[in-house]
């Protein structure tokens, strides 16, 4: 049996701490939204898990976990309730399709955190409020800028203050392996999944192809008809190094 820490981790009877792999919604030392539901689910129940030996800086092991006798993982339960977001994690990418499927039901029905997601790429104040947190951003890529090392997915005309997606070598290779040419993403409606940080304006770095979803055909309006009004000829980033 297990208890649940304030950070939403499973604490086993022997003191082992398991971080539920592939979930986002908080971090060590913070109260996460899924904690009450997870605690209810595991109370008095035996837990089976699969975890690697490595521990993070908080002493936790990343794990897949489920209640004894059940096929679905606790990750799927929390995602379906809209209490967490699926986060692409290298060692668990094989599980991501099932997690996204579970997440999709909450997304369609606007359950839990999906009542406020995705964030509009034009809402800079809302994005900055998420700095350091994993979230989902939706918007129209006006253009794609490029330096010697980085491609920039520009969501606004003024790149030092508007939302940007950063695609470096690792991310570019991952996208190309999925048949996506970064340079041809201009004009596309997309959803980005990642941690927001400040880089002049809010930004998300794309390291994996799973972090971007082509949400709408570039020739069509999104479902709410909510275009940026800027067209696809946004201000280009200067060429050269960063």
From TrEMBL:
Gene3D superfamilies: 2.40.50.90. Residues 233-242 have a biased composition (Basic residues). InterPro entries: SNase_OB-fold_sf (IPR035437). Residues 216-242 are annotated as: Disordered. SUPFAM superfamilies: Staphylococcal nuclease (SSF50199). This is Nuclease homologue. The lineage of its organism: Bacteria, Pseudomonadati, Pseudomonadota, Alphaproteobacteria, Hyphomicrobiales.
